[in-house]
Description:
The structure holds 2 protein chains of 2 kinds.
Chain A: E1 3-11, H1 18-26, E2 32-35, E3 45-48, H2 57-72, H3 75-79, E4 83-88, H4 103-113, E5 120-122, H5 128-142, E6 147-154, H6 158-166, E7 187-188, E8 190-197, E9 205-215, H7 228-240, E10 248-252, H8 259-271, E11 278-280, H9 283-286, H10 293-307, E12 309-310, E13 326-327, E14 332-333, E15 338-345, E16 349-357
Parallel strand pairs in A: 3-7, 4-5, 4-6, 10-11, 10-15, 11-13
Antiparallel strand pairs in A: 1-8, 1-9, 2-3, 6-8, 9-16, 12-14, 15-16
Chain B: E1 2-10, E2 13-16, E3 19-23, H1 31-38, H2 51-63, H3 73-76, E4 77-83, H4 88-99, H5 106-109, H6 116-125, E5 131-135, H7 141-153, E6 158-165, E7 173-180, H8 188-199
Parallel strand pairs in B: 4-5, 4-6
Antiparallel strand pairs in B: 1-2, 1-7, 2-3, 6-7
Helix pairs in contact in B: 1-2, 2-6
Amino acid sequence: xxxxxxxxxxxxxxxxxxxxxxxxxxxxxxxxxxxxxxxxxxxxxxxxxxxxxxxxxxxxxxxxxxxxxxxxxxxxxxxxxxxxxxxxxxxxxxxxxxxxxxxxxxxxxxxxxxxxxxxxxxxxxxxxxxxxxxxxxxxxxxxxxxxxxxxxxxxxxxxxxxxxxxxxxxxxxxxxxxxxxxxxxxxxxxxxxxxxxxxxxxxxxxxxxxxxxxxxxxxxxxxxxxxxxxxxxxxxxxxxxxxxxxxxxxxxxxxxxxxxxxxxxxxxxxxxxxxxxxxxxxxxxxxxxxxxxxxxxxxxxxxxxxxxxxxxxxxxxxxxxxxxxxxxxxxxxxxxxxxxxxxxxxxxxxxxxxxxxxx
Amino acid sequence: xxxxxxxxxxxxxxxxxxxxxxxxxxxxxxxxxxxxxxxxxxxxxxxxxxxxxxxxxxxxxxxxxxxxxxxxxxxxxxxxxxxxxxxxxxxxxxxxxxxxxxxxxxxxxxxxxxxxxxxxxxxxxxxxxxxxxxxxxxxxxxxxxxxxxxxxxxxxxxxxxxxxxxxxxxxxxxxxxxxxxxxxxxxxxxxxxxxxxxxxx
Lengths: 359, 201
C-alpha cells in the first residue's frame, strides 16, 4: 500500500500559506527578530514571533489553522469517521495551565471539524511532529483510517522562553545552525498541517516511505556525544522503507544551532556515511518551533521536492562541526528523489522519516 | 499479544502482578520517597526527578526481573506512555520558580515535558528503541491495544505501556504493563480488569 503526504496549511511569521513560504525561503528570509522585554529579566531576545498574534495566542492560532484547513481540504474529508486528527504539541495552551492546558485543543478541533473521532494528542518534545506523521502513516497502513490530518503547533510564552533562558540555551543573535559561530537556539512559533492519505490524487503529493523513532539512552536534556540514537533511527527508517542510504539526495536536519546538538548530528551523519548529502536546517528561518517543527519542516521538504529547489541553510557561513557535512550555503536547484527528515530532542528522543518524489 | 507482567504504584504502595510488594509506612514524607526508601533502591538520581518519573521508576523497579534474558528489549521494545495532563505538577512549580522566587529553575524546567519519563527509563536500562508519549483524557485500553498492534506491525517485539496521573500531589498513580508480541490473544479485557483491581485495592 502506498501512503501519500499532502499540503494542509502553514502559518508562521513568514506567511500564512505554502506559497508565501516558498517565496520567503527562496529569498533566505527569517522570521527571527529582536523582540523587546521578552526575557526573564526583561531583556530583548531574538525570537521568531507571529506579529498579528496578540491575545489568546494559542487558541487563536489553532482556530486559524482549522479555518484554513476547512478551505484547503474538503469539509467532507475533515468530518469523515474514516479521518483522524493528530495534534503534535509540547506545551499546548499554557495560558490555561491552571485548569487544563490541553482541553482547548480538543474543543477547538471538535467544534471546527465536527469529526466523530477523539483528537489524538502526541507530546514528545521536539520530535513530536515527525513522530505524529509516522503515527498517521501507521494508521493508514493498518487501514484504521483513510486520511489523517496532522497538526503541529506551539506558541511563544513566558514559560518556554524563561525555561530555555534558564538552561542558557538561547543565542544572543539569530541562531546559526552548523556554523562555527553558533551560540544556541532562537525560539519560534508556528502551526502547520499535513494530510496523510491512502490516495494520491490531482493535488501535489509525495510518497511516504517509512519512519521510526529511537532513544539515545544517554541523558534527559543533552544530546548523545556519539549520535547513537540518530544512527539507529536512520538505519531503522531505511530498513522499514526498503531503501538504501545511497538513494537519499537531501537531508532536512534538526539543526537547533546549539554546540552539542549540531555536533551530535554531524557525528551521526558521518557514522551513517551521509556527510556528502546536501543538508540544511530550517531553524534559521522559523526558529525552533518545538512541537510544530517536524510538521513545518516536512512541509518545506515537500516544497523543495515540488520545486526541485533546496534552500540555503539560513545563518550558515562556515562549518563549525569537528567532522564534515555538506551544509547548503546557497539555494541549489536539484532533481530530488528521496528526502530524509530527522529530529532529535529533550528526553533523548530521535525520529526520522523518508519521502519520495512521485514521477 | 501476551501480558508478561504488570505493576502499579499509588499512595497505598507498590504492586506487582496484583500483589502488594511494599506498603507505605511513613506518612510524614511523600509516599514516593517513602516507598523508594523501603524498597532500598539505589538510584540516587531518583531524588532529582519529578513525581511522574519517580512513580514510573518505582513501578519499573519491580518489573526488572522480567527484563532479564530478553535481548530484544535493547532495540525492539517500544515505550507507549500516556497521561491526562502532561507534566502539569512540575509546570506549576516551574512557574512559581520565576513568578514567586524570581529565579527560573533549570532543574525544574527539564522535567516540564512528559516524555522525560520514557527518557529516564531508556537511560536506566539502555533501551534504544521507540518512544511515544500521548495526552489522553483518561486511561483507554482500546487506545493502548491499537498502539501496540501498530508497534508490533512495525517490527517491535515488546511494548512497555504506561499510564500515569499526577494532577495533584499525593494522588499520583502509575500503571505499567509489559506486553510481548507472542501469542495471538486479545488482551483488552485483561488490561481493563487489572487496572480496575489495582484502583480498588
